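user: Kindly work through both lines:
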Amino acid sequence: MSGAPGSGQLPLALRFPPDQRLDTFVATDPVVLPQLRALVVSSPAQCVLVAGGANTGKTHLAIAVCAEAGARGIAAAYLPLASAAGRLRAALEAMEERDLIALDGVEAIAGRRDDEVALFDFHNRARDAGKALLYTAREWPADLPLQLPDLRSRLSQCLRIALAPLDDAGRREMLQLRARRRGLQFDPAAIDWLLRRVDRDLGSLAALFERLDRASLAAQRRVTVPFLRDTLGDLG
């Protein structure tokens, strides 16, 4: 079920954005992608917790794992926990039939006792039923302001994956991967020019990439330094 913004429905499943796939994620640790692919195909199912600061790619991975599962015929659902805070039990009950569930942003419900109890109960039911669970959080369970010790304990038992911010080489690779996936001609010199002038967190780069992709398509031009100057003239 998915709902348009303002519809009152919870975004339990999405049409997963095509750029948010495992093969478009650039990881600083080479074990990250194999571990997440193993979550999709593992038997018995696993529980994985991905932790990292803002703009390290947690949401990308949560959505990518669901897309990977869907491509393999596995029923998956993605839920940003911030959207369900205060009504989490109802949201989770609607996901009971899915085989893989990605719950993005545990910190959003930390300190909300009713939501913590709902997540604890759901976690136990899902594990008993052999379902795969993927959590993301900005910090490890021991550092989250959780009120329920039992929930902290359950989350601490998950396989842990730590994400670190990308350096410029990683950001460059991310832009190149997205460009190749869309058939966008993006000159290497243009990528270097861009990274010297814009906010380099992943969210900002992804939004800027979308803008450049549309502009390139409309102008029927490859992305070169002159094209960037024409399109983003305020950056110099």
Q: What stands out?
A: The chain is about 45% helix and 10% strand. The radius of gyration is 19 Å. The chain has two domains: 22-162, 168-235.
